[in-house]
Write a structure and sequence with these properties.
The chain has 568 residues and is α+β, with helices and mostly antiparallel strands. The chain has 21 helices and 19 strands. α14 (283-296) packs across α19 and α15 packs across α21. Bound molecules: 6-diazenyl-5-OXO-L-norleucine. 6-diazenyl-5-OXO-L-norleucine is lined by residues 376-379, 397, 399, 418, 421, 450-452, 470-472, 475.
Length: 568
């Protein structure tokens, strides 16, 4: 006993006093797969994707299978009642992005979350029927499969249908996640029926979780495609639920929903080309801006996660998020000056007042107020790569954990609370402390601005990195850091994902760092530069694939969560 106590104490001391570089050098080398790999937030979902790959499907077939499986096994974020973005690279080198983000219902109005005095009622855009945008996931999956898949919808939906019909055993964290949301879920009859145990007790690890109504909904999609969701029985159930819970999504809104293929945002950084989601995601624009500013600041001259490295990263992020919040929104509505925002000339000028020894207060970058944001990890990201060279990165969400908390009665799935991603009132922060402007004001049929950042990077024309994450605006910073860890520092997938993260989003004017992992002299130096350093828990939950030469793949699932890598 003394021996094991001694061993634990020595390990702790080594951990506390060893520079982080040495710790990450000890992180185990990841498994390498040659035929295909899936990285997602949940084991059954990764296995569903792997099954499709093994049966001869390509990465797009498998990605669709994973998305539907996550709707069953990760109800807080995986979804058919939400939306998201897909970036894909095909074996013959085509790169495309699909926007299946939710849209504001046609009866939405600019001031729908304000009271008669013009005050923002924050809860209305977060909880209940009025918080939901028109879901995009099912149309997105059907659209992607039709264009790039090789298998029938019935086949790729089968794993999800089985998981819903026969059930699966809850893990400890799945049970905890359901229990922690129980009070809110209980408020809505449809959610009570699915997510609260009939005897009212808490879920335990090992409980069998069966979702018969959801299995029926998935079967309707399998046999009728988008009509199985956007019209007929499912659509009527959604509209009935809207009436019960004060929502405004109509049959016509559902019928008219269409996902959109968009040109990717492309960024060149050293020997890499990154392909990312354009607006209404802000991920691509911010990562492109930050990389250009970091290159100008010669970021590769600085030691990994040193104070000088972090200072440069934070200053580039601060400037970019100020632009994000002001300029970005749905490109189909707001005129977005993409060329100007991403031109080198503009970005060099934007970072030209960088001071190597002094933080630039956010108030001098642009006007704003201080607002804190909440911890959260309720979006999800997954990646699939196959042996043919197809690569898919999908970021998808209900927004908050369990979305609006409203489950469509009889159909068994949760609806999103994505309307909170609009700027409900200029200057008012949303649940992530993000302050929006006119470009992201509510309009009927408009898509709300997002931070989801599915990203595929090529090196010498071959896949190098495919990733994204959960965590609101921290998705952008974590995806950027995962890429840089591999691209600049040569870390393997396990090292790159384990490395401690930082985050800055302009407002609040704080430099967030993950607690415990940064040495006190680094933190003191950053404070000396004038940064308001805030040590917090996990920054984002990410998953990615790193490619070695000849399409050998390393999968990375964040140890900050329950992610799972499945490959062969
Ligand atoms: O699209 C967005 O940016 C947000 N709806 C993402 C929400 C999210 O990541 C929640 N989990 N942390």
């Amino acid at each position: 006993m003394f021996k094991s106590l001694f061993t634990s104490l020595s390990l702790l001391l080594i951990f506390l006093f060893q520079p982080f570089q040495q710790i990450i050098a000890q992180v185990s080398y990841p498994s390498v797969y040659e035929n295909g790999v899936v990285t997602s937030a949940e084991k059954h979902a990764s296995e569903a994707g792997l099954k499709i790959l093994r049966e001869g499907g390509n990465a797009i077939d498998a990605a669709v299978a994973v998305q539907f499986a996550l709707a069953v096994t990760l109800p807080r974020a995986g979804n058919i009642g939400g939306g998201g973005f897909m970036v894909l690279h095909t074996a013959d080198g085509e790169i495309n992005t699909l926007d299946f983000r939710e849209k504001a219902p046609s009866r939405a109005t600019r001031d729908m979350y304000l009271d008669e005095d013009g005050e923002y009622i924050s809860e209305m855009s977060k909880i209940g029927g009025l918080a939901s945008g028109v879901p995009g996931t099912v149309d997105g999956m059907v659209t992607a499969l039709e264009r790039y898949g090789t298998l029938a919808l019935e086949i790729v939906l089968e794993p999800a249908i089985q998981l819903a019909e026969k059930g699966y055993q809850l893990s400890h964290s799945q049970a905890r996640s359901l229990n922690s949301a129980a009070n809110r879920l209980r408020e809505f009859e449809g959610s009570r029926q699915v997510f609260i145990k009939p005897d009212g007790t808490e879920w335990q690890a090992g409980d069998l979780f069966v979702q018969k109504d959801l299995a029926d909904t998935l079967r309707r999609i399998a046999s009728m495609g988008r009509r199985g969701f956007y019209s007929g029985v499912t659509a009527r159930m959604i509209v009935d639920e809207m009436q019960r819970t004060g929502g405004i999504i109509s049959l016509r809104d559902l019928r008219d929903y269409k996902s959109v293929w968009r040109d990717p945002v492309k960024a060149n950084f050293k020997e890499f080309e990154l392909y990312m989601m354009p607006p209404p995601s802000s991920g691509g624009v911010v990562i492109k801006q930050v990389l250009a500013m970091l290159d100008e600041l010669e970021i590769d001259q600085f030691k990994f996660n040193s104070a000088d490295y972090i200072h440069r990263m934070a200053e580039a992020l601060r400037r970019s998020f100020a632009d994000r919040n002001y300029w970005l929104g749905d490109p189909d509505f707001a005129g977005i000056p993409m060329e100007r925002l991403t031109s080198e000339e503009y970005l060099f000028q934007r970072i030209s007042n960088f001071d190597p020894e002094q933080a630039t207060p956010s108030i001098d970058v642009s006007q704003g107020e201080f607002h804190a944001f909440q911890e959260s990890d309720q979006t999800t990201h997954f990646n699939v790569a196959d042996r043919f060279g197809n690569v898919v990165a999908v970021n998808t969400t209900l927004n908050g954990s369990f979305g609006s908390f409203v489950t469509v009665s009889g159909a068994g799935f949760l609806l999103n609370n994505e309307m909170d991603d609009f700027s409900a009132k200029p200057g008012e922060p949303n649940m992530f402390g993000l302050i929006g402007a006119e470009a992201n004001a509510i309009e009927p049929g408009k898509r709300m601005l997002s931070s989801m950042s599915p990203t595929i990077a090529l090196k010498n024309g071959e896949p190098f990195f495919a990733g994204g994450g959960a965590g609101g605006p921290r998705i952008i910073t974590a995806t950027l850091q995962n890429f840089l860890n591999a691209a600049l520092f040569g870390m393997n997938a396990n090292q790159a994902i384990t490395a401690p993260r930082i985050h800055h989003q302009w407002l609040p004017d704080k430099l967030y760092v993950e607690r415990l992992y940064f040495s006190s002299d680094t933190l003191q130096k950053l404070e000396g530069f004038g940064h308001d350093v805030d040590q917090i828990g996990n920054i984002a939950l990410t998953h990615f694939i790193l490619f070695e030469p000849e399409n050998r793949m390393q999968g990375a699932a964040d140890s900050r969560g329950d992610g799972h890598v499945a490959g062969y």
